[in-house]
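Batch 3, record 17
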Amino acid sequence: MSEVRLTGVSRSFGSTRAVDGVSLQVHSGELVAVLGPSGCGKTTLLRLIAGFERPAAGSVSVGGVEMAGPERFVPPDKRRIGMVFQDYALFPHLTVRSNVAFGLARRERDEREALTRRTLELVGLQHRAECYPHELSGGERQRIALARALAPEPEVVLLDEPFSNLDATLRAGLRREVELILKDARATAILVTHDQEEALSLADRLAVMRDGRIVQVGTPEQVYGRPASRWTAQFVGEVNMLLGVARGDGVETELGVFDLPRPARGEVHVAVRPEQLELRPDSQGNAEVLEREFRGHDVLYRLRHENGRMVLVQLPSLELYDVGARVHVRPAPAAVTSLVD
Amino acid sequence: MGVRRTRLDGWALATLVAALLVAGPLVALPLSFVAGGGRSVTQFSGFLPDAVRNTALLLVGVGAGTLVLGTGLALLVSFCDFPGRAWIEWALVLPLAVPGYVFTLFALGTLPAGGAAIRSPLGAIAIFTVVLYPYVYLLGRAAFLSQSQALIEAPRGLGMSSTRAVLRVAVPLARPAILGGTALALMEALADFGTVNLLGVHTFTDAIYRVWFIAFDRQAAMQLAALLVSVTLTLLVLERLARGRARYHQLAARGQAIAAARLRGPAAVGAVAGPLALVGIVVIAPLAQLSTWAVRSIRDGLLAPEFAVAARNSLLLALMSAVLVGGVALLLAYGLRGSRSRLTAGAVRVATIGYGVPGSVVAVSVIVPLAWLDHRLDDASNTVFGADPGLILTGTVIGLFAAYVVRFLALAFQAVETSLLRIPQDLDEAARGLGADRLEVLARVHVPLLRAGLATAALLVFTEVMKELPATLLLRPLGGDTLAIAVWQATSESLFRTAALPALLIVLVGLLPVALMIRLSGRRPAAIEPSEGPEPQPLAATTM
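Prediction for the assembled complex:
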């Protein structure tokens, strides 16, 4: 498996710049999630890597070989890139085995059969080899689509919203399974999704995309904990945006004093995650519970602060406050906020 | 800076060239007025007034006839229920299998005094009406069935009788479909040569034939053809416009389907007897009479000696055309799918107007470029090899194939494209990503998935070529008679029994696509979606 390097890649449709000067490097064996709202250009980015679109500017290289650039365009069938489509795109007239073997047409018969068998074992579906796609469950189709992409031992695997067609209950389990399969195959993989939870839980690194540009790249912890902008902070998880006055290592806000990741002075905007706040019952408290959203392992409270603003607080579901209760909201111990623009 | 690249790859180029080859002759037709110089249509003014008058008469008469008959029958089966409705509904489609000239053969052979009564424009109108009304009937019925019960019930709540409600609401709503069907019927009537020729009604197609074979003036034939094609294209545009609006009208119709009113007593008897009589006269009686004649012709040795040759020619021509036209249609549809070139798309659209164009026009417009090419080839071969191969395109079956491609491409293209559009683009990309080039995608993904569409396309072309008369008549090589020509020739010499067996074969073959259509509309189209969401499809699974 090889690294992927995008340099200043752009692609427009009419007057919309779907992908606008994107540079990104994906290391060999790494799983990178491109996360963004629908219409941000992330699928176009994937299609540029696969060769289904031609960049208007910039270059795409895989394993150090230029695939698309000002002077060169390698068609998709010559790129050795596996792709898993949102709706799987399994060939309805072929059995599972033939689907998986589709990309092995030019191999020797023995090699083809061995690779097909091994890949089916990898996704744990060797017992479904003679079925047709419509006889499979959604999760099985998904794994076959992945197997079909992996069988020819591609340089890179691209996954376009691979879990969006699945039931919520299936999704979590399959996510883990796909992650294991990809790691097992030592695949370099790029996954496109609009689901932040999926991106955070699955990826080695995230690339957050907005309006055709990549606005932040980092590990899930970095992107969630240190969002580079207000927009990213709000897109990746829930957040309270506060105005405060920074005094060195701390920032004073209307909700109390938070630690800063790096020293600063003067007026700053900070992003405070709901779990960085805590509550205690207080009939003279500074806030009132407006709504309670019970989510099983935790609870999200929507509070009205005495100064009128809304505050989101997330607590373990052990602590329950009723709607209408008076509470005191304050920073959790050692809560480090992030500075945003 | 983005450099705008042209996306004309090999496939798009091949598609463009094929489309231009097909469209070229038709587009060039009007040039005959400019290019020819010298002689012009005015020198054959003897033909022109008759042709204009009779063609206009036919248009008005056939238009009114098919409109009334087709709409009436569609109303009957859509809004009334009577014993045997399910059967009668489909029996009313059968006249589509009977070419006008075959029904003419039957009528001339059975009516007293050699059918003197129908050898007139009025007779031609009557014949066209009974064989072409199914176009109006089918489209009208589809439109009525898509209307909702509420549309009929609402005016009834306002105190309108149900008959008035149907006439005042349902019919106007179905107007685009009905007019579209009428336009199709009129295009068929305009394209006809056999019927009008056998009845001695001098129309445009007949005039083209006579100018071609009697006066040997291709220039004038082309000019006549150009005039005729302008009328046809007007109809084609009207039909397209009507179809566009029909879609809009049907969008407005939602909810419970219409409930048919049960007919009783004399009304029910009439509802059964009327359609049965019609189908009896147009399909059953000719089939019975032709069979009797055919048996007698075999017994009495009246069969034309060329019958076997004609049957073989017809079969070979139809088979080879089916493969050829199907192949070109597949190339165009597939080339169009992968291409983003507007030029290619436009060329394909133009190439597929041929079906609206009468066979005689196609023949005339194909022959000129072919003849030119032929002479160049002949000259070239003379210079290079010193040998004179003669005319290899126009003098042989190649010219005929060219005409069939131009004439029937639209038919095959539509069948192929409809199936192709149902294959998700993702499948192409999945295959490309797995290392298949475009030809492999076609061979390994599309062709297996298109089997039904390709078979339909081939069947349609096969049956159309079997019954095609005017283009075949004008372009056939020496000794290349077909069944259709045999029918026409024998009938024009009043040798009805000799004509019977070839005519019978043509009708029987013509029944195939009609049967296919009935079968297809009787069940839901087969789904080929690769994925239907998260749940497995138990129903689909049992059908494998």
